[in-house]
Fold each of these.
Amino acid sequence: MKNSVTICNSIDETHLLAEQIMRQLKGGEIIGLTGELGAGKTEFVRGLAKTIGAMEDVSSPSFILQNIYRSSSQNKIDTIYHWDLYRVAASVDLAEILEGKKKTNSLTLIEWFEKSPFLNKSLDLIIEIKILEPTKTVVPNPTTVLWHDACIRQFTIRQEHRVCRC
Ligand SMILES: Nc1ncnc2c1ncn2[C@@H]1O[C@H](COP(=O)(O)OP(=O)(O)O)[C@@H](O)[C@H]1O
Ligand SMILES: [Mg+2]
C-alpha cells in the first residue's frame, strides 16, 4: 500500500476510504490509528466492519481492550480485532499477544497505539486522522442558533517498514 493523504467530507466518504483500504490488505495486518478524541478512529473501524458484513455494533473498546467483529459471509479477512489503549498502562507489553494475530485472516486495529511504546515494531500501517474544522460550527438561523457538526477529516496513511514476515 502506498503512503497517501485523503480528505473525507462525510461519514460515507470515510466508510468508502475504509472499503478501498480493505481491498488492498492481505490479512494479518496490524494497523495503528491515531488522532484526538472524536477524530473518527472508531468511525473508520465501523467502515471496515461494514465492508466484511459484520453484524456486531462497533464502539470504542476503552474498558474491555478488545472488540471482535466477524464476517457474515466468505471474506479474505473474516475477523476484525478492535483495540483501544486509551486506558491501558504504558508499561504493558502487548507485542507478544499481537504476534499471534499476524498470520491469520484477520485485521487488528489499535486506537491510541502510541500509548504503548512496545508496539512500534508490530505495526504494518499507521493511519493518522485530523479534524480539519472545529468540531462544531454555528449555523445562523432567524429564530435560534443551530450547531452543525463539521465532517471534514484528513486521513494520512503511512506504511511502516518492519521486518518482512513472508
Ligand atoms: N468524515 C468523518 N469521518 C469520521 N467521523 C466523522 C466524520 N464526520 C463526522 N464524524 C463524526 O465524528 C465522530 C467521531 O467519533 P469516533 O469515531 O468515536 O472518534 P474517535 O474514535 O477518534 O474518538 C462520530 O460521531 C462521527 O460520526
Ligand atoms: Mg474511538
Amino acid sequence: MDLILKVWRQKNSESEGKIETYPISDISEDSSFLEMMDVLNNNLIEKGQEPVAFDHDCREGICGMCSMYINGQAHGPSRGTTTCQLHMRSFKDGDTIYIEPWRSKSLPIIKDLVVDRSAFDRIQQAGGFISVNTSGNTQDANAVPIPKENADKAFDAASCIGCAACVATCKNSSAMLFVSAKISQYSYLPQGEVEAKNRVVNMVEQMDKEGFGNCTNTGACEVECPKGISLEYIARMNREYLKATLIKDKK
Ligand code: SF4
Ligand code: FES
C-alpha cells in the first residue's frame, strides 16, 4: 500500500506544533499500525531527519501507551482495538491518514504524539490500591467467597488499561470512565470495601484537581474505549461518592 501520512510534529511542550506530510510506500496490509510508524521512522532516520516520537510498550493491547488519534478517532477506526492492535488492512491503498496526539489540557503534549499522562498516575496514587497486612497471617484471597456477578464486574472494570482514549474523546475531557473503572475494580470485592469511602472521595478529588471536566452522559467515552468499559461504572462511582460524602455519618 502507498499512503500519505499527515503527522502532528511538535518539538516540545512549549513550542507550536504543525501537521507535516510524509508519503510512505510498500506497506503490507498485514503489518500493524505501529509497524507502519516504525517504517516511517526508519525512512526519516535514513534521510537524517528527526523520527516521530510516539508512545508504545507491550504492542499487545495491555499497557495503554499507544495513544493517538487516527483520522480523528482515538485508536483509529476499529472498535475495541488499541492502536498497536490496529492493522493496515483497515486502510486502503492511496489513503491519507491523519495522526495526532491526545488533545486535553490535563494530558499536555511532551513531544510529537507523546503526552504526559502522569495525572492518571496521581489519581491512582490517591486511592487506587488496597492496604493489606502482610504479617504472615494474611487470609488467602481465594478463601473469601465472592458472588460470581460481582467478580465478573470487578474483572471487567480491571480491564481498563489507562490509555486515556475516554478523556481524548470526551468533549469535556472528562476522566470519569477511567476513574470509575479504577474505583469499581476494588469496590465490587470484599477486599476493596474496607477503604471504599476514602478511595472514592480521594480519587474524585484528585481527578478534579488535575483539571479533568465533568461527565455529561454523552457516552462517547464508552464507544471509543478499547476495552469496552461501561458507563454503568460512572453511575456506580457517583452513587459511592454520594454515600461517602452526604451520608457518611449515618448508618
Ligand atoms: S476507561 Fe477505556 S478508554 Fe478510558 S483509560 Fe480505561 S481503557 Fe482507556
Ligand atoms: S502498546 Fe501497549 S496497549 Fe498498545
